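Structure (tokenized):
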């Protein structure tokens, strides 16, 4: 497998509990379960007891009119659905973590790939104009057409997430770990 050079613009890509990740009506429990890498590094996004949408997001700086791909690994917990969306133009993609299918998609080209053990790599690609400053990883209760579904949580339910990646590419490359305060670049294979 030969891959081009790419940069994961997300910092702390495996630590959603880090302060680099904003939490809105949600908390994150770190190292809750075994990730696709075989290590106990997958986190759990947990809803709050407040009414509203429940999500975590990460600031990114991206140029407009450039294709970008967001990818992450997710596994069903008490919630079997997760959504990626951006605040620039309200586009979103819903992923069904129970049976590995796509829900409603608006503005993205999306796919979901089983990697075993109940884990799925969720992928969403598009060209942004204007460019988003954050991408939200949102809990949803059903694979509906709703963006940022509003509901009252119980403070304990959620789903599992690992290895977030945001790259300037029209397709996803293999995961680039970026667990420090700066983005991480993988050089092209030769």
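Design, position by position:
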């Amino acid at each position: 497998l030969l891959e081009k050079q790419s940069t994961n613009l997300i910092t702390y890509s495996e630590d959603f509990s880090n302060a680099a990740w904003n939490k809105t009506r949600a908390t994150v429990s770190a190292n809750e379960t075994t990730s696709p890498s075989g290590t106990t590094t997958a986190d759990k996004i947990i809803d709050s007891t407040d009414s509203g949408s429940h999500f975590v997001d990460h600031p990114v700086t991206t140029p407009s009119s450039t294709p970008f791909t967001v990818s992450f690994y997710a596994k069903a917990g008490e919630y079997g659905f997760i959504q990626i969306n951006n605040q620039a133009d309200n586009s979103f993609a819903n992923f069904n973590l129970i049976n590995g299918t796509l829900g409603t998609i608006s503005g993205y080209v999306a796919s979901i790939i089983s990697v075993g053990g109940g884990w799925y790599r969720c992928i969403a690609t598009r060209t942004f104009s204007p460019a988003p400053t954050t991408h939200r990883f949102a809990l949803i209760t059903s694979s509906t057409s709703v963006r940022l579904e509003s509901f009252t949580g119980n403070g304990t339910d959620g789903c599992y997430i690992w290895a977030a990646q945001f790259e300037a590419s029209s397709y996803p490359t293999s995961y680039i770990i970026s667990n420090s305060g700066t983005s991480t670049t993988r050089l092209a294979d030769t």
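Reviewer-requested clarification: The mean pLDDT is 91. The CA atoms of residues 68 and 168 lie 4 Å apart.
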